Amino acid sequence: MAVTDEAIEKIKGMIVSGALRPGDRLPKESELASELGLSRNSLREAVRALSLIRILDVRQGDGTYVTSLDPQLLLEALSFVVDFHRDDTVLEFLAVRRILEPAATAMAALRISEQQLDALSAQLDKLGEAPSVEELVACDLDFHRGIVQSSGNSVLCSLLDGLSGPTTRARIWRGLTQEDAVSRTLREHRAILSALRDRDAEAARSWATVHIASVEQWLRSSL
Q: Where does the HTH gntR-type domain start and stop, copy by copy (predicted)?
């Protein structure tokens, strides 16, 4: 394993130094192994590992390339890791979301377009006043994703997208067991949207915090 780690570090070093840039094709395996002082087996294992986390793209019959290194692509690995969370860590995921998402919502208040606001409003109108829990949770995910995307920060967007999975079950559970969960969620969505329309970053931040904290508070009392 130590040999593979060394191979990974050497390839990483080439990318960080600029010797290999996004979209570049790696030299032939034999040439690269010789250049880096590695065995072909350790190089092969390193390439396999780096392809799993979207650093390299292995194209059969064509060679191995450095990916675009776009944050959204690289953070796909986070979603994979997050899928292995334990139920007792959901509160920790919610706490991280409560830190990041209000900040993204405040940023969006200054950048979101009128067309995007109208689309979010239409989404809520289409949902109606008495949606099923499943419909509400699906809309909730899309609603917040649309806002975060408007923040203009692709890293923040990818991080929050990756963190949303573990909290989905908690939101469904809350909707099924808490009497006013559906109506409360709809009211909070409208309040966030209103703050965004007013371009009031602090009000948008506050309502997003309240929205996430209410799920967190309910889950803490239910465990």
A: 1-69
